[in-house]
Amino acid sequence: MNTHHIKTLVIALAATFAFNAQAAEIPNSATLKYSGSYGIPATMTFKRSGNQYTVVANINVPLYKIRFESGGSINGNQLIPSYYKDIRNGKTYASATMRGKQITYGKAGESQTKTVNARVMDLFTLSWQLAFNEGKLPSGIKVTNGKKLYNIGKLSPAGSKQISLSGGKTTVKQVRLQRGDDTVQYAFATKLGNIPAIINYKDGDKNYHLTLKSVSINGQTVKPQ
């Protein structure tokens, strides 16, 4: 095996075991509160009912409320999305509906339908998918923001750091992911069930930088030990 192959294998193994922790158990509910750019508050909730789930992220920009919502089914520890919505000031700005290999997506009034041989996720759902699967990226996956479909590059480890959380500190493992021409950064709190602790990405002219400040799982506040 030559040096190039060895290096590729090391990177792949590092990404696969990026969390160095067991897969998180899928909770019935989780509420994560973040601080966004310029201290703007944001909340992401995950809710499970039987084999169905929803993920909702609310970002309260002054005079402009943004809501990202998605949902679908759960098969083992895999999330299978069926819809995604980008809602701004109470009106649907863009959306996507997934039925088998068919996806209908686009801005309101500008939708199109395509056949794709891939599971399609939004970036918030993908953060939970990674959390529940030890940081393993599903094969054959695309992501959508409702407006477009993007190819996904490989997941790369990006080191660890400490963040302040609920009056204490906890270590998070960082990873990077290529989405089209942009880079998405996630970080996961490995000692707190791999919950998504940092979500950074760019969408058009908007930059989203979310850092976790508090969390409750199944109605119980979770704090670093």
Kindly describe this structure.
The structure is a single chain. The chain is built from two helices and 16 strands. By secondary structure, it is mainly beta. The protein has one domain. The protein is globular. The protein starts with a helix and ends with a strand. The N terminus is likely disordered.
SSE order, as H and E?
HEEEEEEEEEHEEEEEEE
The coarse silhouette is globular
Topology, number of strands: 16
State the major sheet: 16 strands, mixed
* Unreliable residue stretches: 1-18
Summarize the SSE layout with pairings.
Blueprint: H1 3-16, E1 29-35, E2 41-49, E3 52-61, E4 64-75, E5 78-88, E6 91-99, E7 102-107, E8 112-115, E9 119-121, H2 123-131, E10 141-144, E11 149-165, E12 168-179, E13 182-189, E14 195-203, E15 206-217, E16 220-222
Parallel strand pairs: 9-10
Antiparallel strand pairs: 1-2, 1-15, 2-3, 3-4, 4-5, 5-6, 6-7, 7-8, 10-11, 11-12, 12-13, 13-14, 14-15, 15-16
Descriptive labels:
60% strand, mainly beta, 16-stranded mixed sheet, 225 residues
Summarize the structure.
This protein has 225 residues and is mainly β. The protein has two helices and 16 strands. The radius of gyration is 17 Å and the shape is globular.
